[in-house]
Specification:
- The chain folds into two domains: about 220 residues, DHBP synthase (Alpha-Beta Complex); about 90 residues, 3-Layer(aba) Sandwich (Rossmann fold), CATH 3.40.50.
- About 30% of the residues lie in helices and about 20% in strands.
- The protein is built from ten helices and 17 strands.
- The strands form three sheets. Strands 3-10-4-5-9-6-8-7-11-12-13 form an eleven-stranded mixed beta sheet, with helices on both faces.
- A hairpin with a 6-residue loop joins strand 11 and strand 12.
- Helix 1 crosses helix 6.
- It starts with a strand and ends with a helix.
- The structure holds threonylcarbamoyladenylate and magnesium ion.
- The site of threonylcarbamoyladenylate has 28 residues, from strand 7, strand 8 and strand 12.
Length: about 325
């Protein structure tokens, strides 16, 4: 008999696994009919539903165990489709879309009335993104509707970057899993509020701040004092604890001076001093390449999380480029 494993606060039953494959036609039909499909994107796997169908969207919240105050990103295939969901599309948005779509950038803009309140958690804005992953694009194309999708993990947990991750976490709760292989970027999209100038960075991600600023000039970053779990509406996805493994995770600046418990794991960009102190080590890029590190980051956290460690120690990344997004995820995983 197959054992039942704990996933979040419920039991995951591997006998109930959903169909998995590359059958875009089937996945698109499920979306149109109000079902829930997990699908590959270049950032992380998404948990998709027909964005204009509130009942389908409600299932996404239910499957993910996501609080209703945390709005979803709507995925479309081009700027024209994004404009149909938004009441205004300022010049800044236009420039960003030209430069980074399709790709890992999400723009938050005033919504049109037709976008269901459930998708936007009652906000007057909607988050839109145009993915570049070919399977995601085919799915949107064939479904013929915008697809609302959060990352395909139970709320607060580590995001999935392979189909197997999705299967392990949500495989028994979804209608189909569109397997597009491991995600290239490996971190979620950058979320940028562009309704007013200057734009505000709500979540660092796959497009770097440096690249954004090269196109639109200075971008305002949310100060940590503005990120308040009691006022999640200002930036709903910025709840401080998020992206978290089960094993406690702590950030350490200096590995040479810190205390290392007996069963500690290490998550680090490049090879550490005195590696024998650790029961398990994940080196993300021997050449200190932040792209390579981002692509394997979540899989490395998952791997450490399965090794019955007392603690995961993690060294911060250089605070530039993708390193900012990586540090952001580490800080939230460490809370
Ligand atoms: O890369 C990604 O963005 C992935 C893939 C599947 O596209 N999706 C993803 O979704 O990471 P999710 O739900 O895990 O994160 C969406 C973020 C959350 O922080 C949410 O609060 C924010 O976007 N968001 C969505 N709509 C918003 C809005 N109207 N105003 C402000 N933030 C919004
Ligand atoms: Mg997420």
């Amino acid at each position: 008999m197959l054992a039942l494993r704990r996933v979040g606060s419920r039991r995951y039953d591997p006998r109930m696994n959903c169909p998995v494959g590359q059958d875009v036609k089937r996945a698109a039909a499920i979306i149109r009919d109000g079902g829930v499909v997990a699908f590959a994107t270049e950032t992380v796997y998404g948990l998709g539903a027909h964005a204009m169908n509130p009942q389908a969207v409600a299932r996404v919240f239910e499957v993910k165990g996501r609080p209703r105050f945390d709005p979803l990103i709507v995925h479309v295939n081009d700027t024209e489709a994004a404009k149909r969901l938004t009441a205004t599309f300022p010049k800044t948005a236009e420039r960003l879309a030209d430069a980074f779509w399709p790709g890992p950038l999400t723009l938050v803009l005033p919504k049109v009335e037709e976008v269901p309140d459930l998708v936007t958690a009652g906000l007057s804005t909607v988050a839109v993104r145009v993915p570049i992953h070919p399977l995601a694009r085919q799915l949107i194309e064939q479904a013929g509707v915008p697809i609302a999708a959060p990352s395909a993990n139970p709320f607060g947990q580590v995001s999935p970057t392979t189909a197997k991750h999705v299967q392990q976490q949500l495989g028994d709760r979804i209608d189909y899993l569109l397997d597009g292989g491991p995600c290239d970027v490996g971190l979620e999209s950058t979320v940028l509020h562009v309704a007013e100038d200057p734009p505000t960075l709500l979540r660092p991600g796959g497009v770097t701040l440096e690249d954004l600023e090269r196109v639109v000039g200075p971008i305002r970053s949310l100060e940590s004092t503005e990120i308040d779990d009691n006022h999640p509406q200002t930036s709903p996805g910025m709840l401080s604890r998020h992206y978290a493994p089960r094993t406690p995770l702590r950030m350490v600046e200096d590995l040479t001076t810190c205390d290392v418990p007996r069963k500690a794991g290490l998550l680090t960009l490049n090879h550490p001093p005195a590696p024998e102190r650790f029961a398990a080590i994940e080196v993300l890029s021997r050449t200190r390449d932040l792209r390579e590190a981002a692509a394997t980051f979540y899989a490395a956290i998952r791997s450490l999380d399965t090794q019955k460690l007392e603690l995961i120690l993690a060294t911060p990344f250089p605070d530039k480029g993708l390193g900012r997004a990586l540090n952001d995820r580490l800080r939230r995983a460490a809370k």
